[in-house]
Each structure stands twice: as C-alpha cells, then as structure tokens.
Amino acid sequence: MELRKKFVEIFGEGGDIREYFAPGRVNLIGEHTDYNGGHVFPCALTIGTYACARLREDGVLRFYSENFPKQGVLETAIDDTVYHKELSWSNYPRGVIQAAAEMGYAIDRGMDILYYGTIPNSSGLSSSASIEILTGYVLRDLFGFDFDGVTNALIGQRAENRFIGVNCGIMDQFAISMGRKDSAIFLDTATLQYEYAPIELSGVRIVIMNTNKKRGLGDSKYNERRAECEQALAELKKVLPISSLGELDEIQFEANITAISSPICRKRARHAVYENQRTLQAVAALRSGDLAGFGELMNASHISLRDEYEVTGTELDTLVSAAWQQEGVIGARMTGAGFGGCAVSLVKEECVPAFIEGVGASYLAAIGYEATFYVVEIGDGPTRIS
Length: 386
Ligand code: GLA
Fold this sequence. Notes:
It contains eleven helices and 13 strands. It is α+β, with helices and mostly antiparallel strands. The strands form three sheets. The protein has a six-stranded mixed beta sheet with strand order 5-4-6-3-1-13, with helices on both faces. A four-stranded antiparallel beta sheet has the order 10-11-9-12.
C-alpha cells in the first residue's frame, strides 16, 4: 500500500508529510487483571496501524481511513471537544487529542491524517488502542512534545475512558506503546513497573485464532465485569487492608470470601485473584524454560475466564477446545476482553499447518462459519517510518 500516494490523492500535495506505524497487541496471560491492580503479560505484534500525517496552517482536523473509504474525509475543528457519533472511528484520534490537551499537551494547529490498519477490526487485537497510540505518537512528533511512551499509553487510556466511554485498563495502550521485538512485557498494573521478558520460543509459534464474531468493548459486558470486581473489592476492604484484588493471593482470598455477598461477584473476584497469581507463575515458568508449564497456565486461564468470569462464549470455547485437542499444542486461551474476538495458542512449528486445518474444520462444523488464523511475530512499539 502506497500510503503517501494515497495521502496526496485525498489531501493534496505540499508540506512535510510523515509516515508512522504502531502495532496491535496480543496478551499471553493475565486477562481482566489490569483494572484489578494485577499483572499482565502482553506483547506487541508486527501487524498494526500505519499513518501518514501533516500539519495544517489552520485549526481544522481532517481524518481519512483506508479501511473505511466510504466514510470519506471526517472533518472537525481542534476546539470541538465533544464526541460526535457521526464522526465514527475518528472519535479515537479526536479523543487522543482531547486527552493529550487535558494532560498538558494542547495542539494549536490542525492536521491531515490518513490511517491504514492491518489488524482485523473487532478482533480483540486492539485496533483501537493501536490508533490511539499511533495518534499520540504523531502528535508527539509533529508538535515536538516530550512525553514518553508510558505517558502516551496513559493519554490513550484516558481517551478510551473519558471520550469513547470504555472503562478499560492500561494493558492494551501500554503493550502497544512500550512494545519490544521478541519480548513480552511483564507489567504490574498497580505501579506501572514493568520488565521485558525475552520470548525465545525455539521451534514454537504463536498462532492467533479469530472467531470472526464481531464485538466491540462498548457493547460488551466489559464495564459490567469491572463493576462486579469493584463491588467485591469494596466488600473485602471492610475486612482486609487492601486497595486492589491484585494484592491478594489465593489463600487470603478464600479465607475472606464470605465478606463478598453476591455469589456472582465472588466468582468474578476469584478469577481476578487467581489469574494474577497464574500470571506470576507463568512468567516464572517461562524464565526457567518451562514452556509446558506456561502452556498449562494458559489453559487454566481460559477455564477460569469461561467458568468464573464468564466472558468466553460458544465461539471462543469451541476454538480453544479444538486447539487443546491438536497435536503439538502447548497451550491455548482466549485473549483480550472476550465475548468473541481472538484466542491465542502456542504450537510446535512442525504441527502448525495440521493445527490450523484441524481447528478450522472443527470450528466450521460447530459454528457454521470460518475462523481465521494468523501465525504472528512479536514486534516493536510505535515508530516513524519516514
Ligand atoms: C480489553 C481492555 C484491557 C483489558 C482486557 C482484558 O482489552 O482494553 O484493558 O482489561 O480487555 O484483560
């Protein structure tokens, strides 16, 4: 895709046109822990979002997406700080501009920006966080702001929380903004302390399996799950000196579970606590070269997301159960928010073609439409290409 050519075709010649890229992400383990003060273990991908951008002399913002050509150029003024439904996907970059301004990085000139994404929409591989981080990176470069990658992640999260209205945690924006090739990020979401863990999967590939069931966080039960965890925490706080579920281990949790009145909230909190502990164990397993142990923890994560957190659904469960039955699979689980979207699996390289065929056939037979598979690489965070 010749983005620059397309940019000139849409917005015209002239000025200093710059090109950028920001990745998507996949989470290996630590699901629905990031808004519970727990740990996550995501990595950036080599698929992501590209942008071509240029400053304008006036105060107009013009956005175009090669993924939504029918919507044409979506135009707005920099001082229009309100969410407009008809501005569709461009509310993501608009939200970032607004969040950046609120954090002290206000812009005083308009821009033309063209986007092109290679992340399937609604796949749960964070196409929205990718646009957000990319936009923050474009702002930083075009306006010479000095914020770092962590701040860019916080800007993106703020845009999502306050402008888009999804109460997401920090994982997606952080994974994308701070991504590093061939490494996963072991992030403590309570403190934002993080470490890179090299992922040396000799002879093993990361295979992402897309249910092709469309979803968006806005219409999912995401905010509801978050509220259930908050209710459990509020009740636990009456008997324990804690500020998040991530501070508890399994034993402390079980010893105090009766403090939580609703059986549903008990299940949600149990997932958050156990998943955090599994993430710590999984990173330790990986560091000691125990890939099989890592895979078993991935499987346990899926079961907990299915039975305790109840965010999987037939499509994801079908994919993951089929994956577990294939030869050469080390572990498989849903990834991201759930309710559709993608699952992730670790598969021995020589078994990948048969794995895809086997899972694909089972899925088609059970669900009635096809799943899509991506054998992915772990990539870097955002960059300026030219
Ligand atoms: C979505 C959110 C993240 C995280 C995951 C679940 O991707 O954006 O903050 O909560 O769901 O782990």
